[in-house]
Amino acid sequence: MEVAGLVLAAGAGRRYGMPKALIAYQGRLLVQRAADTLREAGCIRTSVVLGAGAERVREAAPDLPATVVNVDWAAGMGSSLRAGLAALVGGAADAAVILLVDMPGVTAEAVRRVIAEVDAGAGPLPAAARGALAMGGYDGRRGHPVLLGRDHWAGVAAAAVGDRGARDYLRAHADRVRVVPVGDVADDSDIDVPSDLN
Description:
By secondary structure, this protein is of the alpha/beta class. The protein is built from seven helices and nine strands; from the N terminus they run βββαβαβαβααββααβ. A hairpin with a 2-residue loop joins strand 2 and strand 3 (28-29).
């Protein structure tokens, strides 16, 4: 199974006071950390969706992998997810793992665990991986990372509006979503305001 990584990092971070992609955390920008997490987890290709302050982010983080600029970033996270999935369509990936830039506690081990769970269930058939849906599980709560098989990309994109991303699509297909426990190796708390860094 070939899995691509997708970092959603386009928002202006209004509550924080700056684009979250530019927030420094443990010696790296959040956007670099998220891209590193997907690379370390073994994703064949990682794309980063930028928007607010895109040029500043590129200047501050020249080591980022491929970037996609979402010109409609102000419409919400849904537009960034659509832009990111559209950028992956021409590639060979059977699935994509989605990370949000403001969740630095989601680890490479959590991503690997979700991928491994889907890979084991898919067996030798790429078609099975392409139909997969999976999420990290935190003591009964569903969270990131989120894995979307290629067969779902169009449906997810159609349902991604405003700030709702893949949420509505995953709820509509809840009986098909594999929830993989990752709470022992990850934390999906998000950074909304400066005090959250503590």
